[in-house]
Amino acid sequence: MPSPSPRTPLKPSVPHTAVVGAGMAGVTCARTLIQAGHRVTLIEKSRGAGGRMATRRSDFGGFDHGAQFFTVRDPRFERVLRLYPDLIAPWKVNTVRVLDALGQVMSSGPVPRDTRWVAVPGMNALVKHWAQPLADGTLDGAVVLESLVTRIEPDALHARQWQLRLQSADGGHPVLGGFDHVVLAIPHPQAEALLSASALAPAWVDALRKVDVAPCWTLMVAFPQAMQPGLEAFGPRWHAASSDHHRIRWVAREPSKPGRAAIERWTVQASPSWSAEHLEDDPERIKAKLLKGFAEITGIRATPAHAEVHRWRYAQTQHPLGQPFLLDARLGLALCGDWCLGHRVEDAFISGLELALAMAG
Predict the structure, then answer these.
(1) How far apart are CA 98 and CA 249, in angstroms?
(2) Residues 215, 53 contacting (CB under 8 angstroms)
(3) How far apart are CA 251 and CA 261, in angstroms?
(4) Which of 10, 22, 33, 303 is 20 to 30 A (C-alpha) from 245?
(5) What range(s) does the Amine oxidase domain occupy (predicted)?
(6) Using an 8 Å Cβ cutoff, are 145 and 166 in contact?
(7) Neighbours of 156 (CB within 10 A)
């Protein structure tokens, strides 16, 4: 299909940019572009901002069922985080390492090289806070939620701009137009599918096919019975474990994180290989298998009052793109995300930031 004509600015104007995806990379990119003078429309298929910096609410408290914590190495990330001291806190947690496939042999976990930080009161709080000024009009932007972008095409009224076809949660198919730039800050297979459906950037599609991101099944369990008076101990003395168990890669006690509710809750994340092998399994079967593995590792064999699973199809980058973003300034198309550089939260921030700076320059 035809692309918009290359841009040759005729007079000063405010560029209008669509950023698709409201995770860390997308929101960072959107805010930086606004600071550089762009007007931004942020489009997200879910009910709110956050991406994999996610918190699942329940009657027993929240579960950080996506990213468990983040570390800070880039000075730009550090400078930004210093502006929000009430939204982050260090997670000083005693960890162990599960050394065998059955969860029976453990050792003390190594002292982490970097401070582990969490958002407060849940991992989604930071990105939600950053996105809020776009939603309430404080910044020059807008937020469109529960809307999936299905196609990118030349604007019907302005040949040098883009329009986006959407599928909304209510079944509608609105079209948003008038965009000078479109940024895709979404998982790479979704970006690949959208570009292919739009007959755009075939070289990018080929590059995206070389990126590998593993899935992850996550189990969330709550044990309010552990709060009973007179009950001296419930579960292990440690609060988090990295694991070589044949199913489980990570286990964390939610109340050990700052600002969380006290009810005994655990988040359990399966290994990439096991998650991939069982990606399409029935969720109830996944729940039963992960509950068994959780009991083997923690020794907690009580029946949880709450248990649910969540499937992340795209969770942890195994083979990144190898550069912070993709940008075609002539056409006004760009891609960013943690998968460009790695799997850390900071990778998503850097990708979104560096793309926005390149577009602004």
Answers:
(1) 9
(2) no
(3) 18
(4) 303
(5) 117-356
(6) no
(7) 10
Q: What pLDDT digit, counting tens, does each position of 247-299 carry?
A: 999 999 999 999 999 999 999 999 999 999 999 999 999 999 999 999 999 99
Task: For residues 50-62, give the mean pLDDT.
Answer: 97
Helix (H, G, I), strand (E, B) or coil at 236: coil
Q: Are 245 and 104 a contacting pair, CB within 8 Å?
A: no
Do 1-47+145-211+321-361 and 55-122+213-319 agree at the fold level? no
The pLDDT of residue 357: 98
Amino acid, single-letter form, for residue 198: S
Helix or strand (DSSP H, E) at 208: helix 202-208
User: Would you place residue 12 in the very low, low, confident or very high pLDDT band (cuts 50, 70, 90)?
Assistant: low
Fold designation for 1-47+145-211+321-361:
FAD/NAD(P)-binding domain (3.50.50)
pLDDT score at 104: 72
Task: Of 34, 67, 55, 66, give the one whose Cα is nearest residue 135.
Answer: 34
Q: Which amino acid is at 71?
A: T
Query: What are the CA-CA distances from residue 337 to residues 24, 116, 150, 165 (Å)?
Result: 8, 21, 19, 22
Residue 232's pLDDT band (boundaries 50, 70, 90)? low
Q: Which overall architecture, per CATH, does domain 55-122+213-319 show?
A: Alpha-Beta Complex (3.90)
The whole-angstrom separation of Cα 213 and Cα 317 is 4
Whole-model pTM: value is 0.93
